[in-house]
Design a protein that fits this description.
- The complex is a heterodimer of chains A (about 120) and B (about 375).
- Chain A has about 120 residues and is mainly beta.
- Chain A has a single domain, classed as Ubiquitin-like (UB roll), CATH 3.10.20.
- Chain A contains one helix and nine strands; from the N terminus they run ββββαβββββ.
- Chain A is globular.
- Chain B is an alpha/beta fold.
- The chains are: A mainly beta (about 120), B alpha/beta (about 375).
- At the A-B interface, strand 8 of A face strand 5, strand 6, strand 7 and strand 8 of B.
- The structure holds zinc ion.
- Zinc ion binds near residues 167, 171, 246 and 247 of chain B.
Chain lengths: ~120, ~375
């Protein structure tokens, strides 16, 4: 296993376009995630030592984590089939997550992940 | 004869040099920029909160031809006068500005015809199906699409289908959100100044494209009136190879003609107001008149719980009602006081328009 200094990773998460309403109406959150997480994205914290199959914390895990620990409203407004529901844009350090590997992107210390719901009004 | 005003060397009428001089002297804009604008045509779809400010600035900048498309607003000709009047306040009336006012609803069957011939389309609409329709149409007609949207304190702005490999709306949002997850400005609220900011920026992006000042990079500008800084710009992916609208082997015009956009977006948006008026199970619903009569006979006959947001409750509510936002009610139904349960034959739950909450209330709450 890696040393203590890499056992967790702290990132900034932001919600916009109305998504903040699902997360205590708070736009900006600072999260500390375990650096190694179960491959099935179970979000029990701390990660039980019995878990054998682990992977580095990635965006898919983050989505599960947000759903299980921070979401205050109906889950279907945020998550669907293990990813974000259609109409939500995910940005990793101000770049569309599709340019960064989507859910497989491994979060790094200090990353900023933004979830934006598209607007349709005019 | 080249030096004649209006000739090849001075391609604009004399008054234009006076009127538009201040923007013409900008580096990168110049005479050519103004000539480009005067020869350009822009279609503005939706003449509401986004479209109106966009129209004013497009007209004032000297765009040659502007199409206004809006079937909801019969006073569209009034708007036409406003744009011309706005020009008057800026300088001389541009009698050469051509305005096409179209009041037929844009649909899959007429979009390609109605929007053909415009150099640029501005999406200033307020619903998801039309946004997909306009994007597909812009791709099929090979025009860029300047898309704006606003809700609450938020705004979003993006130029689609522009630049080398620029994505279209479908590339970024291949799957539409469920109708029940989409709120309208009417339900969620909107600050007029926010639509003004985004609408102005749509005009600005259009002017940049037409004058060659746009860098063509795919980005989305995101605005929140309450954040510092209020703007944020995000880098978008390029065109999606398999995009049904703009990818390899895309159907282009046939896609527009053959798509039922409302169906594609999951059907009509639920009509919450109408749903709320529906007759429910006997004893589980009450209309306003019956409630009023009941309270007149016995003011303590029922306890009224209003499950809307506190802000909405603060604007207007029924006398004697108590505000318990739905989320709290569903989460902690046990917190409802025993006294109120035993002393009341029933608890009535009121909501405004967002009647999707009703079903949860009836299943989760037994007061
Ligand atoms: Zn596309």
């Amino acid at each position: 296993m890696a040393g203590a200094e890499t056992s967790s990773v702290t990132i900034k998460v932001e919600f916009s376009g109305g998504l903040e309403l699902l997360f205590s109406n708070q736009r900006s959150h600072t999260l500390t995630l375990p650096a190694a997480v179960p491959t099935d994205n179970a979000t029990t914290v701390p990660v039980p030592s019995t878990i054998e199959a682990t992977k580095p914390a990635d965006i898919t895990y983050l989505i599960h984590y947000l759903r299980d620990h921070l979401l205050q409203e109906r889950a279907e407004l945020f998550e669907e089939n293990g990813t974000v529901r259609p109409g939500i844009l995910v940005l990793i350090n101000d770049t569309d997550w599709e340019l960064e590997g989507e859910g497989d992107y491994v979060v790094k210390e200090g990353d900023e992940v933004v979830f934006i719901s598209t607007l349709h009004g005019g | 004869m080249d030096s004649v005003i209006g000739g090849p060397e001075y391609p604009l009428p004399l008054e234009d040099y006076k009127r538009y001089g201040r923007q013409m002297i900008l580096d990168g804009f110049g005479l050519q920029g103004q000539v480009n604008l005067s020869r350009a045509s822009v279609a503005v779809v939706g003449a509401g909160g986004l479209g109106c400010p966009a129209l004013q600035y497009l007209g004032a900048a000297g765009v040659g031809r502007i199409g206004i498309f809006d079937h909801d607003r019969v006073e569209i000709s009034n708007l036409q006068r406003q744009i011309l009047h706005n020009e008057e306040t800026v300088g001389i009336v541009n009698s050469r500005l051509v305005i096409d006012a179209v009041t037929s609803a844009i649909s899959a069957s007429n979009a390609l015809t109605l929007l053909a011939g415009y150099d640029l389309i501005l999406d200033c609409t307020d619903n998801v199906p039309t946004r997909y329709l306009l994007s597909d149409t812009a791709v099929a007609l090979k025009t860029p699409l300047v898309s704006g949207a606003a809700q609450k304190f938020d705004g979003q702005l993006c130029v689609y289908h522009y630049g080398e490999n620029g994505p279209c709306y479908r590339c970024i949002f291949p799957v539409p959100p469920k109708p029940s997850n989409v709120g309208s400005c009417e339900e969620l609220g909107i600050l007029g100044a926010v639509t003004g900011i985004i609408g102005n920026m749509q005009a600005l992006e259009a002017i940049k494209i037409l004058t060659g000042l746009h860098d063509g990079k795919p980005v989305m500008h995101i605005y929140n009136a309450l954040s510092t800084p209020p703007f944020r710009t995000i880098k978008l992916r390029s065109k999606r190879e398999g995009c049904p609208a703009c990818g390899t082997g895309a159907l282009e015009k046939a896609l527009v003609r053959d798509t039922d956009y409302v169906q594609f977006c999951g059907g009509l948006r639920p009509d919450w107001e109408h749903t709320g008026l529906a007759q429910g199970e006997a004893g589980k619903r009450i209309d306003a008149k019956s409630l009023s009569a009941l309270l007149a006979s016995d003011p303590f006959a029922v306890e009224i719980i209003d499950v809307r947001q506190p802000t909405e409750f603060g604007i207007v509510h029924l006398p004697g009602s108590k505000n318990v936002p739905l989320k709290q009610l569903v989460e902690y139904p046990q917190n409802m006081s025993r006294k109120s349960r035993s002393s009341s034959p029933a608890g009535w739950v009121t909501t405004h328009r967002r009647q999707q909450t009703r079903c949860e209330v009836s299943t989760e709450v037994r007061v």
